[in-house]
From TrEMBL:
Molecular function via GO: ATP binding; phosphorelay sensor kinase activity; protein dimerization activity
GO CC, alphabetical: membrane
Organism: Actinomadura logoneensis
The enzyme's E.C. designation: 2.7.13.3
Group of enzyme by EC: transferase
Keyword Acyltransferase: no
Catalytic activity: ATP + protein L-histidine = ADP + protein N-phospho-L-histidine
Name used for this protein in its record: histidine kinase
Superkingdom per UniProt: Bacteria
UniProt keywords, alphabetically: ATP-binding, Kinase, Membrane, Nucleotide-binding, Phosphoprotein, Transferase, Transmembrane, Transmembrane helix, Two-component regulatory system
Length: 440
């Protein structure tokens, strides 16, 4: 029993310390952020708010993520992170080859994508609401255990010896006109009771505060249902794309390599019949058979390359992207920083995504140069493809971009297109993935 009482006392003391930390964080961080948030929202109609709002919202996210960590570590309450994935940012180095206009467009596209990402995320608006309400609940509920203990200790250790401080709230226990023994005893008794309540009920109070935060900071049920619908649609699109790809392979095999192999078999059979009676004709048939075998082999290699390019298996994504750049009729600046290998399906999806964007730049954008940047940011493979063409690219019109977007979505990936009329075009794609051991 003594051990259990000691453990409870330790837990209660820890809860009081944590409550004090919570109250300090609310006072030092939450209140200033609330003021900055209100000012930024008020200045949005003037345009200044669009500049101030993103850093303020990112700071709010840092505060809410700290609350999520504390809720889990201190009270065992898990608050899932509901934010939508952040779009990958194009670096200024990626647009350097296209001159100052490309660099400026890259910076504008990066800021615009950040603003759009923050304001379109429902979790950002829930964060704003939490920030405003937590200015009160963080002090009242989160700081309640510490307030009870500190105020109680004040009643025990300070008030009986300083009767001039009766305005702090201990006056009812003092006799009118004279401090008296009864007043001192009343202060000490009530102070002890308050400190005991804060110490004993600190953990459940902190847990209640964590549950309040979870109700506001966790993903709403509608968001979970929306995510299920997104995954269902993505799965359906992936199944349809896989079925279409299988039909294409079957058609290519039937119309191409299979027909070549059938002709090859017929030429060899005829050569067998003529080898004794007409050797010259047999030789001609064998030559045609050799030519047909070479054509069939070329078609089979092209078919395999369309499924999984051999260059990926041999040289990885770095070599594959550089091979794509060399095949284009315009200069392409390539920067690859991927310290390892992604899973083969992810590498293949990344390769074909870059290939499609470079093909669009060469065929439709009238671009004179392009650039490709591929890197891994610790949690995802980021691919940025840009060109100095005429712009106006829009995945909503269908075509290859739409197909690539669906292919990336199958891996929970994203694609953002910044392509104003007159260019340049910057396509930022992201594929969540882990890498194998770094290259040696």
């Amino acid at each position: 029993m003594n051990g259990d009482a000691h453990d409870r006392a330790g837990v209660g003391g820890l809860a009081v310390v944590r409550s004090l930390a919570q109250a300090l964080l609310t006072h030092v961080a939450n209140l200033p952020l609330t003021i900055l948030l209100l000012v930024s929202l008020a200045l949005v109609p003037l345009g200044v708010g669009l500049v101030l709002l993103p850093p303020v919202l990112l700071a709010v996210r840092g505060l809410t993520n700290q609350q999520r960590r504390w809720a889990l570590d201190w009270s065992g309450v898990e608050i899932p992170v509901p934010y939508r994935p952040r779009p990958a940012e194009a670096s200024t180095a990626a647009g350097g080859a296209a001159g100052e206009a490309a660099r400026k467009a890259t910076r504008v596209a990066r800021w615009t994508a950040t603003v759009r990402w923050l304001l379109r995320d429902p979790a950002s608006w829930r964060d704003m609401l939490w920030t405003a309400t937590n200015s009160v609940t963080g002090l009242v509920l989160g700081g309640l255990p510490a307030a009870l203990v500190v105020y109680g200790l004040e009643g025990v250790l300070v008030m009986p010896w300083m009767p001039d401080l009766r305005t702090f709230g201990w006056g009812p226990f003092w006799p009118l006109g004279d401090y008296g023994l009864a007043g001192s005893a009343g202060c000490a008794l009530l102070g002890s009771l308050m400190a005991l309540l804060g110490w004993r009920y600190g953990p459940p109070i902190m847990r209640a505060y964590a549950l309040v935060n979870r109700s506001m900071l966790g993903p709403p049920r509608g968001r979970l249902e929306e995510r299920v619908r997104e995954l269902t649609e993505t799965r359906s699109e992936t199944v349809d794309a896989s079925a279409a790809e299988l039909r294409r392979i079957e058609r290519d095999l039937h119309d191409g390599a299979q027909a070549r192999l059938v002709a090859l078999s017929m030429h060899i059979g005829l050569a067998e019949q003529l080898v004794r009676d007409d050797p010259d004709a047999a030789v001609r048939l064998l030559a045609e058979a050799r030519e047909a075998s070479g054509t069939a082999l070329t078609e089979l290699r092209g078919l395999v390359r369309g499924i999984h390019p051999p260059v990926l298996a041999e040289r990885g994504l770095d070599g594959g992207v550089r091979a794509l750049a060399l095949a284009l009729p315009m200069p392409v600046e390539v920067t690859v920083d991927v310290p390892g290998r992604a899973a083969p399906p992810v590498e293949s999806a990344a390769y074909f995504a870059v290939a499609e964007m470079l093909a669009n730049a060469a065929k439709h954008a009238d671009a004179e140069r392009a650039w490709v940047e591929v890197r891994h940011n610790g949690s995802a493979l980021v691919m940025i493809v840009g060109d100095d063409g005429r712009g106006g690219a829009d995945p909503a019109r269908g075509g290859g971009m739409l197909g690539i977007g669906r292919r990336l979505a199958a891996f929970d990936g994203t694609m953002a297109v910044a392509s104003p009329e007159g260019g340049p075009t910057v396509v930022t794609m992201e594929l969540p993935c882990a890498l194998s051991s770094p290259k040696t």
